Amino acid sequence: MHRLAAAMLVLLCCCCLFLATQQQQLQPAAGGNRASPSCIPHERDALLAFKHGITSDPGGVLSSWRRDGRHDEQDCCRWRGVRCSNRTSHVHELRLGRGGTFPPEYLAGQISPSLLALDHLEHLDLSGNDLEGPTRRLPEFLGSLKNLKYLDLSEIPFYGGVPPQLGNLSRLQFLDLSNFRGGTNSTNLSWLTHIPSIQYLNLGGVNLSTVADWPRVMNMLPSLRALHLSFCSLASANQSLPHLNLTNLEELDASQNSFHHPMVTSRFWNITSLRFLHLNYTSMYGQFPDALGDMTSLQVLDLSFNYYDGDYDDGKDRIMTMDLKNLCNLEVLNLELSHLYGDLAELFRNLPRCSPNKLQELYLGWNHLTRMLPRWIGQFMSLVVLDLGRNYITGHVPYEIGKLSNLTNLDLSINKLDGTITEEHFASARSLQYIGLSYNALKIEISSDWQPPSTLEYVSFASCQMGPLFPGWLQWNVSIAYLDISSAGIADRLPQWFSDAFSNVWFMNISNNQLNGTLPADMGSMSLQELYLSSNKLTGQIPMLPPNIQTLDLSNNLLSGPLPSATR
Ligand SMILES: *[C@@H]1O[C@H](CO)[C@@H](O)[C@H](O)[C@H]1NC(C)=O
Ligand SMILES: *[C@@H]1O[C@H](CO)[C@@H](O)[C@H](O)[C@H]1NC(C)=O
Ligand SMILES: *[C@@H]1O[C@H](CO)[C@@H](O)[C@H](O)[C@H]1NC(C)=O
Ligand SMILES: *[C@@H]1O[C@H](CO)[C@@H](O)[C@H](O)[C@H]1NC(C)=O
Ligand SMILES: *[C@@H]1O[C@H](CO)[C@@H](O)[C@H](O)[C@H]1NC(C)=O
Ligand SMILES: *[C@@H]1O[C@H](CO)[C@@H](O)[C@H](O)[C@H]1NC(C)=O
Ligand SMILES: *[C@@H]1O[C@H](CO)[C@@H](O)[C@H](O)[C@H]1NC(C)=O
Ligand SMILES: *[C@@H]1O[C@H](CO)[C@@H](O)[C@H](O)[C@H]1NC(C)=O
Ligand SMILES: *[C@@H]1O[C@H](CO)[C@@H](O)[C@H](O)[C@H]1NC(C)=O
Ligand SMILES: *[C@@H]1O[C@H](CO)[C@@H](O)[C@H](O)[C@H]1NC(C)=O
Ligand SMILES: *[C@@H]1O[C@H](CO)[C@@H](O)[C@H](O)[C@H]1NC(C)=O
Ligand SMILES: *[C@@H]1O[C@H](CO)[C@@H](O)[C@H](O)[C@H]1NC(C)=O
Question: Which residues line ligand 6 (CB under 6 A)?
Answer without folding.
Answer: 219-220, 222, 241-243, 245
